[in-house]
Amino acid sequence: MKLYPEIYLKPFEEKRIIKGHPWIFKSEIKTIPNNIENGEIVLVRDGTNKKIGIGYINRKSEITVRMLEISSEKEKYYPPEDLKKFFEKKIKNAIKKRERIKNTEAKRIIFSEADNLPGLIVDRYKDILVMQINTLGMEKLKNIITELLIKILKPEIIYEKNLSPVRKKEGLLNFQGVIYPEEKQIKPFFIKENEILFKIDVVSGSKTGFYIDQRENREKLKNFVSGKKVLDCFCYTGAFGCYALKYGAKEITGVDSSKDALCIAEENMKINNFKNYKFICDDVFGVLKSFIKQKEKFDVIILDPPAFSKSKKEKKGAIEGYKKLILFSLQLLNKGGMIFVFSCSHNIDYNDIVFCIEKSSKISGCKIKIIEKLKQSIDHPIVNTIPETFYLRGLTFQIL
């Protein structure tokens, strides 16, 4: 039986890993034998020679090992010749967890570390799979993963969209294109989510073409928008606006700086036969300032900006951005109105959002009441021992 090459941790560095966090940093490793190739699967031992589990290694990355399995000393590991069975079990488990999600043709079926498949993301749109590979180790496993996805799900198309900045840190080039079947072309298509049709452009769109992670937050509009005037900031392809109109909003205004995204938003409105909407292609901050001058007022405002902070160094600037955004929005809100504010930055937590709300409301002289905490959809599971899996947070609050 072939064995995995072994690496050893420094004394006491195993505690966080044994508790369930799958990342091993370069500074935590005692030795890496020269004959181990980057991207190779290794057996990890602690400072006392006990087995911790298996993972793949990349010396080029500060996260040098990403664990695929964290197990006790007595547990057996799948040998290299049985890797296909090992990954088939993981993929089937991930798919099974999403079976209870109904009324949608768009799901994230594999969410990287949260599904014990670090570096791999797979979104399913009907019979089309969009795959992202962010690490060298997973890149080397791509053929096995692709073969298993075809076997288990029998997709019409698998499209690979590898544009993450993480790839550069892993020594990988960006790539996107159809990988199965090779001669197939992919065009924009429509999916249905809660009886609303949405156009998906996986090639040119953000992420894999749609913000699947906001599904349950879009549904939250149901209790607040009937007969109301809604402003959707950073609206992208208009999903929040479509939900608002479905749930009886009087009118919606969507603002985004992407002309291409707003063209799709228009199509989404038309194919669903929605009326009373308008879209503005411009900088959101500039539009909000203009609305304040014009004394515009809204009953519900949605603030779903792109990540203001992609690292801890950027957090201070991100906080200022949120404060400014909320301050402008408060000046546009009718009494009793609601704001939905989101952050897709792991570095911005609920306390940070509350801080921004409190500071902005104090400056504007408004009294506010926080209604509810919001988070990413359940097909993007949050693992308590891996805080990085919790990246999308939101709050709804009301002006009194």
Compact summary:
The protein is α/β, with parallel strands linked by helices and 400 residues long. The protein has helices at 15-18, 83-97, 136-140, 142-153, 166-169, 215-219, 239-246, 259-271, 284-293, 315-330, 350-364; strands spanning 6-9, 23-25, 29-31, 41-45, 51-57, 63-70, 106-111, 120-125, 128-133, 157-162, 175-180, 189-193, 196-200, 229-233, 251-256, 277-281, 298-303, 333-343, 368-375, 393-399.
If you had to describe this structure to a student in words, what would you say it looks like?
This protein has 400 residues and is α/β, with parallel strands linked by helices. The protein folds into three domains: 6-77, Roll (Archaeosine Trna-guanine Transglycosylase, Chain: A, domain 4); 82-180, RNA methyltransferase domain (HRMD) like (Transcription Regulator spoIIAA), CATH 3.30.750; 189-399, Vaccinia Virus protein VP39 (Rossmann fold, 3-Layer(aba) Sandwich), CATH 3.40.50.150. It contains eleven helices and 20 strands. Strands 16-15-14-17-18-20-19 form a seven-stranded mixed beta sheet, sandwiched between helices. A six-stranded mixed beta sheet has the order 2-6-5-4-1-3. A hairpin with a 5-residue loop joins strand 5 (51-57) and strand 6 (63-70). The termini are far apart. The model has no long low-confidence stretch (mean pLDDT 94).
